[in-house]
Amino acid sequence: MSIPAGLSDLIVHNSDFGLLVIDRYERVVVWNRWLAVHSGIAETTALGARLTDLWPEVSGTRAHGAIRDALHHGRAGFISHAFNPMPFPLRGLAGDRFGDPIDQLCLVRALDSDDGTRRCLIQIENISSAVRREKHLRGQIRELQETKTRLETQGRDLEEMARRLRTARDDAQRANRAKSEFLANMSHELRTPLNAIIGFSEMLESGYGGSLSERQASYTKDIHDSGQHLLQIINNVLDMSKVEAGQYQLFETAVDIRDVTRTALSIVGGQAADRGLIVETLLADDLPLVMADERTLRQILLNLLSNAVKFTNSGGVITISGGIDPAGDIAIHVRDTGIGIPEEAIGLVMEPFQQANGSFSREYDGTGLGLTISKNFVELHGGTLTIASEVDVGTTVTVLLPKSRVLDETSAGL
Ligand SMILES: Nc1ncnc2c1ncn2[C@@H]1O[C@H](COP(=O)(O)OP(=O)(O)OP(=O)(O)O)[C@@H](O)[C@H]1O
Ligand SMILES: [Mg+2]
Fold first, then answer.
1. Which of 89, 157, 231, 300 has the smallest number of CB atoms closer than 10 Å to its CB?
2. Which ligand is nearest the CA of 313, by number?
3. What CA dihedral angle connects 398, 399, 402 and 407, to 10 degrees?
4. Which protein residue has the closest C-alpha to ligand 1 atom 22?
5. Angle at which helices 294-310 and 257-274 pack, to 10 degrees?
6. Which one is predicted more confidently, 232 or 294?
7. Residue 39, Cα to own-chain centre: how many angstroms?
8. Separation of 336 CA from ligand 1 center, angstroms?
């Protein structure tokens, strides 16, 4: 069945790809509308003209070779886009004007008619958008590969950094352990002769080795006091290093804060009286028992009270108060009417070996460890230690123990 001529014309001119037929002299026989639109050459101009006259730039190209192959040897072929992306000077449309050159995929075939003449059919497809998409995809793939490479490098860097941090941490832990062991050993080594010094000076003082002259007794007392002072420092340093190494163990029992306060006062009370200070205790009647390490709690109060005594001048007042605050926590305040701490030094004095007046003089003795240790001890109990102070007015140190440490009457077995 042959297609009626009118219909085949319709098909040829309405197809959305280029259809070009040329005879063996390379003269145009068919030039469809698509070609006219994309080449800018009207069908009437094209028909009968030689292809290389219409498009001189095609002469001698691969595309030209493929056409000749079809015309002279009857070989079909296609013009590879990879080698020849734009074989013919065709352009896309941008509105009513020419746009960019278009990427083409061309099929070339020989058409042999019954009368023995041979023609060449060239079918040209616009593949610009597919090429653009592919280019875009290739771009994305390249970016993804670059990202992957970058992430792999970063991953390796991070692993290396983690390895170095682990090594540094291990080194630090080893050094810290060595420091703690050294301090523990040193403290032990120092305490043994120190106990002998304290013990023998006590014996001398008590007249056990014979009566002493007034001057000898005074020297002996100095030896004894200095020994005690040194022992206190050694104990503080040891406690500090234990807390820092995370090795300080709390021995928790039900503790009565009133008892602890009484014991602490019995130790510093004499000193307070010697310095002409008034000490008041204002503990709430309903002060409950708390779950705490008694020795540690006593040490905290002792440190705070000895500071209050040390930094308050004659005639001053020291007050210890305590009770349950509105949040249900236990609050203990040690207040004095002493010299106070300058505002800018309040943070500093809680650091180890720091003293507010350290830069001026050695008027007050001490190592600057009492507050640091007390703060650490309170924090081991899950509490907080804060300081409020005003120079020449006084200082209040507040210890808060969390309400989880409060024992009600039933749990305290009362
Ligand atoms: N109640 C206070 N009034 C005024 N200043 C204080 C008071 N308590 C502490 N300070 C200041 O904080 C500093 C640090 O106190 P901390 O108890 O840590 O050390 P220290 O008393 O000097 O020595 P240590 O307690 O080790 O014998 C003190 O040197 C002092 O300057
Ligand atoms: Mg102190």
1. 157
2. 1
3. -120
4. 368
5. 30
6. 294
7. 62
8. 13
Kindly give the number of the ligand 1 atom that is closest to the alpha carbon of 334.
Answer: 1
Residue 368, Ramachandran bin (φ over 0: left; ψ between -120 and 50: alpha; else beta): left
CA of 306 to the centre of ligand 2 (A): 6
Summarize pLDDT for 335-390 with one digit per residue, the tens: 999 999 999 999 899 888 888 875 444 567 778 889 999 999 999 999 999 999 99
Contact 19, 34 (CB under 8 A): yes
Closest approach atom of ligand 1 to CA 336: 1
Residue 79, CA distances (Å) to 109, 139, 148, 174, 296 in order: 11, 25, 37, 74, 93
pLDDT digits (tens, 9 = 90+) for 226-277: 999 889 888 888 888 888 878 889 999 999 999 999 999 999 999 999 999 9
Residue 303 CA to residue 25 CA, distance in Å, equals 115
Q: Cα(375) to centroid of ligand 1, in Å? A: 12
- The type of residue at 125 is E
- Quick check: 256 and 263 in contact, CB under 8 A? no
What is the C-alpha radius of gyration for the chain, rounded to an integer number of angstroms? 50
Q: Is the pLDDT of residue 36 over 90?
A: yes
Most confident of 181-195, 213-227, 391-405: 391-405
Asked if residue 413 has pLDDT above 90, the reply is: no
Nearest to 281 by CA among 299, 255, 254, 308: 308
pTM of the model: 0.60
Q: How far is the CA of 252 from the centre of ligand 2 (A)?
A: 25
